[in-house]
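ARCHIVE CARD
SHELF: 3
SLOT: left
DATA:
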Amino acid sequence: MSTRTGTRTRTSTGKAEPAMPTAEDRNSRRLAWCVAHLLRHAPDHVVVDLIGRLDAPTRKYLCRDEWLSASTVTLLLRHGDEADRQFVARNPHVVGRPLPGLPGPARYAARPGPSPELLGQVGPGPFAPGELIALLRRHGRRPRIPLTLLRMPHEPLDPQTLLAEHARAPLPPGAVEALLLAGALPRETCQALLDAGRQDTSRRQWHRPAVRAVRMGLLTFDELVAHVAPAHRTLLLADLPENTGLRWSLPERTGMRTAVARALRPLRDDPRLWAELLRHAPGFRGTLPVLVARIVRGTLDGSAGPQAVDGLPAAVASLAPRAAEPVGGVDRELALASLAVPVDSVEEDIRWVRDCLARGLLTGEDVIRHKAPACWALDEDHWLGDVHHPDRHDWAEPVLAARAEADRLFAVSIGADPDAWWRVAVTLPDFAGTLPHLLLRVTEGGSVSGRS
């Protein structure tokens, strides 16, 4: 649940004590909680529109909410006012930009200066732009040395010159990550640096610039999908394997899969189009949205990709729509019915749902479709336990399945219409029915009360 907040009053001793929250405070906090969950499934322009419709108290609680997605935080910092930025900066649950414990600009800046060995190799500087780019290429496997080079005396890098060099021969991942961290480059330049050309994706560190761009708040997931190239890298980013070092947390992974699934939606459930995606993605140099548009229009030539890409078939299979496996039995019917039955405590509900998931009686899709109220179905903490802490969750599959099903329901019912998203947002806090029921009522109009 959200952390307790409220106004403060002065006692006779002059000390500030938290006052009891008013009904208006509770309503604003609950609306902010529901909006935070909805924005995980909305495209960027809808996120910006919904944030702009919130009144000041609700917007304050939204900035302090612990379920804010990485993209929502980025858009709040980009389009919000100074009060929004201050509330987000003081939110202890905003665990990105960058994650605590992972190297960021401040941590690298606190390191000692260049080592004598490095000075012996490159000299003390100052470096001309061409010299600096050449050094970034030579030492760009990991970001540590490029970040040190960027702290040494050098002439300012011209973004156009940098992009021309990157287009001629893409910079290594460590150099790109260092430029994102400490290059002070315009956002358009950062986006263009994510085009990796024909670099080999078998390197372990190829994904770091994309993850870093999201962690720093430079780009949202939708923007990442729109600018990462070649297209097969975007598909692989949605299904990164578990490894050490810089990687997606579970909430970030769901956000990336939501954005990629949104880009793949024109393929619908046509097996022929999905086969064309897997066939052409390895050799396509452009971005994923461009590839999908050309597949749908049928304007690609008949040649397939030059070679297979490790992990790509599995990534495409994980994103492709698939029919639900036929399951039945009395136990499953009882488990589905129990999702709409009030329980004595959240802890008891979590124990029951986790047991049904472990026994294969329920899936994440079932929870989204059948659990009531709808706001609890969207919040995994209400049916799976504490899942919002990064990288410490052993039930990833139900979360991924639930988010994907919610994405599908929102896309089918309300699409990218900000007015429809707003109607869902203001209805969700007091709606007692399931999410499909809510979306049906909102799209049909009329009363949206889920109560008898």
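SLOT: right
DATA:
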Amino acid sequence: MTFMTDARALEHPATADIRLEVVLHALSDPMRLIVVRTLAAATDEVACSDVPLPVTKSTTTHHFRVLREAGVIQQIYRGTSKMNALRRADLDALFPGLLDRVLAAADGQAARLDEPPLPLRVATDA
């Protein structure tokens, strides 16, 4: 089951339809993991364009779609921007501790490999 509210609304799986193997597949890609880590670090919704990935725009769109269809993120249009947020409450209810463990492991790997910090370009309202 999916839910939609209007013509510009994007389809998302209902919480009960989110599957562990689909979530794990979505989280297994390095670019999608950057997106998830960026959203986890944000205090508000984040526009797709504020998550700088070293891939083409069409590939970036693909990664966001995979995350949305897996139930990892929620996307909503705000004006002309597509805003993104983690579906943390849904994931925590279905798979307690999974998201926190994945994020901690990703942070640990980044530190172990001496990777630069995430390239956050998230705009803040002052």
